[in-house]
Design goal:
The chain is α+β, with helices and mostly antiparallel strands. The chain contains three helices and nine strands. Strands 1-2-3-4-5-6-7-8 form an eight-stranded antiparallel β-barrel. The model is unreliable at 1-20 (pLDDT under 50).
């Protein structure tokens, strides 16, 4: 587990350092109500990352702390839903107080990576998260499945932002 946490931390550090401006004009959503964003999210699709290799049923849970930071708990099952549950605990903090749409996330201090909210449903039923490196992208939802029409529309918008949607992989979720 320690190696997973270290790997995530190194990944986020690399994300921040290399290719940080590939999508220099990338825009986030205009505003995020942090309290509404908290809670459980299911990973619907993602750019493959070595720290998630072999994981299914990946979820993220965000909890607002009294100091304004966010506790992050990511989890997923190894190979299948009967596999061992792996978790990674971290903290996030808002770096763009005007919109609340740009955060930093750290799983291993002092390393931190960008967490930009690029798309967000009006009822906070889905989110697209990435950053301007163009190397990291996640589609998240409050439910384990996403409507095919909505998913297709998000793919179109993601592609318009400059991301290569052919790299996206769906993550199996337990219903």
């Amino acid at each position: 587990m320690k190696s997973v946490l270290i790997g995530i931390a190194l990944l986020f550090a690399a994300c921040s350092a290399w290719g940080a401006d590939r999508l220099s004009e990338l825009k986030t959503v205009d505003s995020v109500d942090v309290a509404r964003y908290m809670g459980s999210w299911y990973e619907i699709a993602k750019y493959p990352q070595w720290f998630e290799n072999g994981l299914v049923g990946v979820t993220a849970n965000y909890t607002l702390l009294p100091n304004g930071k966010v506790r992050v708990l990511n989890s997923g099952y190894i190979k299948d839903f009967n596999g061992k549950l792996k978790t990674a605990k971290g903290k996030a903090w808002i770096v763009d107080k005007k919109t609340n749409a740009k955060l930093k996330v750290s799983f291993f201090w002092p390393f931190a990576g960008n967490y930009w909210i690029l798309e967000l449903g009006k009822d906070y039923e889905y989110a697209v998260v990435g950053d301007n490196s163009g190397k990291y992208l996640w589609i998240l939802a409050r439910e384990p499945r996403m409507d095919d029409v909505l998913y297709s529309e998000l793919l179109k918008r993601i592609q318009e932002k400059g991301f290569d949607i052919s790299k996206l992989e769906k993550n199996p979720q337990q219903i």
